[in-house]
Amino acid sequence: MITARAAATFEPVGRSVATARGFVRDTLQGWGLAELIEDAVVLTSELVTNAVVHAGTSAEVRCLRDDRGVRIEVVDRHPERELPLAEISRGRVDVNSEGGRGLMLCAALASRWGVDYTATDKCVWFRLDQQTVPVGTRTAGPVLPAESLPVTDSRVRVAVVEVDRNDAITRWNDDARQLFGYRAEQVEGKPLADLAAWPQTPGTGTGIAEALLLSRWEGSYGVRDSQGRTVPVYACHLRVRDAHGEPSTVCLIVRDHERAILQSPVRLAGGNAQEPRDRSGLDSLDALIGSPPPDDLDGLLQRTVERARDMLDGDAAFLLLATDDETELEVRATTGLPSARQRFARVPVETGSGRYGSARMPSVHEDLATTPGAVPLLSGTGMHAVVTVPLKVEGRLTGSLGVASETAGRYSNEEALRLQFAADRIALAVESARLTELERLRRGSLAFLVEASELLAGTLDRNQTLALMAQMTVPTLATWCAVYTIPEPGSEPVLSYVLHEDEERIDGVKALLDRVEPPAPDLTLGVRPWNAPSDAARNTALRTSLRSLALGGRSPAETAGTSLATASAVGGETVVLPLVARNRVIGLLALGKPTDERFRQDILELAEDLSRRAALALDNARLYSERTAISQSLQRSLLPPELPAIDGVDVEVIYRAAGEGNEVGGDFYDVFPIREGVYGFAIGDVCGTGPEAAAVTGLARHALRLLAREGLGGPAVLQRLNAAILEEGPRARFLTLLYGELWPQPSGGALLKMVCAGHPLPMRLAPDGTVESAASPQPLLGVMDDLELFEQTATLDPGDVLLCVTDGVTERREGTRMLGDDGLADVLSNCTGLTAGAVAARVLRAVERFASDAPSDDMAILTLRIPA
């Protein structure tokens, strides 16, 4: 016989599943069927999911109560949808498959279930029967087979420990001695907290003193035995008082795996018919945040605090979320407080001076004036009474919800229970939204770091790296930033770059930071707050105000406004991150917020990742700048500082090093006096670049000068140079070289004696535009021991030009085309009548224009011209 019924229809959208769960939960709670709620909610969730998500139709949920229990029906509008009934009855459904999972749960949890079809809809139903217990029984469990009963040791030991009002042990029974190895006389008089490890997570501190102050507490922790080992235990604490009114706490303790001996059955508030309670006290999820819940975390949290304040008729409410390591709570939503300046403020979880008390369990403060600092968030707000409850998911602290009133003594344990019940209902939704936001933030952080890495890797210029570092942090991570660099190990940090999201504030912020002592470059301090800028900002604002008062308000308004605006821009939280590269602090990154703003924990973590990448990029830019300076200095040392003036001969050289950094080695040239009236000239190309090539380049240039001045002829000079190169062994490089001697003639013109060892042949341009080779090819240097070379003689008449180039000119390419000797000859043939400098410039211009891309090889162009 049906004694009560309720029904609701849900649209085919994803959030309908959660709304349907809330409908069934509230319905069964109102009927006093608390022990059936969990199974009913699980089955309803699966069946409604099948209807609205998989079938894509609306779903009607009907709850029918009778004398034996409840029948729940889920009706959808897709009657022809196939169900794996036969497979389920034979247990053949794949447990990893999404299909049929709801029906498998029905088969496992329901007393009975089935599927009814009509011409227009399909109804999947299940029954859950109430357990029959004897009259007067507070709670009972079903009859179970022996193999399903909880497992204990051969002998069950229940430790009975009693502690006084100071938490000192006053009673220690024999089972406690057997469990933990201490005799009574060893522990009596000692605080129980000295033996307890709370909870069983390293590094989280102790909090058992809080549990001992509660009227009743039940849960898990660890106790260190006489051997120093931590024994996991399950305990039930009950606070009592003796005939003289002296309070104490009785603790019943068993091994954690035997918790079934003490553990109370999980029952929701109001579930026992013999403990009636006003329905208004059972504040549902929908009553707290509304239905449907917001999709975004901030909206969910803000609606939660507003409804919590209204639910307890408070003046203010706040919600804090635990950081990832659960050692701190972060303010995420407030209402009714005088300022939003506390947003993202962080306070430690455990009790103590300036810490957030009782974060792990419900707490009621009748008057904060008697316990100052118990709730730091409310300091100076005028709030007196406050009730706080934890948000927990699977026993893990995820946050804290609090409601405060300006009236002292406003709240009691009754309000704490109401708020805790609502918090238990909202905790999972908050955690789910938090994880969703965290995943979104992590994806965004990864994308941000990838983009930052690409930008930082795209430059090796120090100043550009500093600018990029600042531009990536402002305004994404901070309102303003300052980059300090450390030029040398052990030197003081130097303010190198300042950026503010408002460009008009940059000069003011920089001026303020110039007056502040830079932060200490100590790697051991890690990421840390830096109060100096905010202190300086407040002092600046104070001085500005006092000056204005002293002058009777006659101070220039523009100056005062600028000072106050700068102070406001820098007056919030500031943190310093060390820039560490290659195990050395090379700088500091300061990030700041304006007045009354703080950093979020995830922003600080992202800033740490960015600082590591930026530090490496900055150090790479430093190393590259140093290497470039060294390369350019070495390159200059390998080339002659200036060309000699030769009577009757016009000499010009153009040298172009390819690529960034001007890598040393490569091509070289030289023009030098040998003796009176005789000059040597050379142009060569060493194989490769870098230190090995530079060594051969320096050897060649200096050996040529030395050997030529010893009076040796061209072949002898090159043969000895060849032997010196081969003596370099593995460092040897082959070398192409054009070496010659220039003998200016008193009557005009010049005599040339040349040896062309594997080098592009020199070209002679006559006044009539004729171009011809001035030498013949011979073997290059650095390859063969026994090298036979010969000297060739040529003359330069007035108006003639001798052009000598390296292969960077003749091998200039555009696709499959190459300039080559013929192309160079065509360019030279159009240079009649030009000076040596003009000839070299025209050749260089022709080479650059031959292809659209930049030259990839070094080029040296040497021209000798006899004036007409």
Automatic annotation (TrEMBL):
Entry-linked Pfam families: GAF, GAF_3, HATPase_c_2, PAS, SpoIIE
Domain (PAS): residue spans on this chain? 160-190
Does the keyword Cell cycle feature in the UniProt annotation? no
**Which ranges form a coiled coil?**
none
| Statement: the UniProt record of this protein carries the keyword Hydrolase | yes
Alphabetic keyword roster: Hydrolase
Q: Which CDD domains match?
A: HATPase_RsbW-like, PAS
Q: Which domain of life is it from?
A: Bacteria
InterPro entries recorded = Bact_Sigma-Reg, GAF, GAF-like_dom_sf, HATPase_C_sf, HATPase_dom, PAS, PAS-like_dom_sf, PAS_fold
Q: Where is this region: Disordered?
A: 269-298
Q: What is this protein called?
A: SpoIIE family protein phosphatase
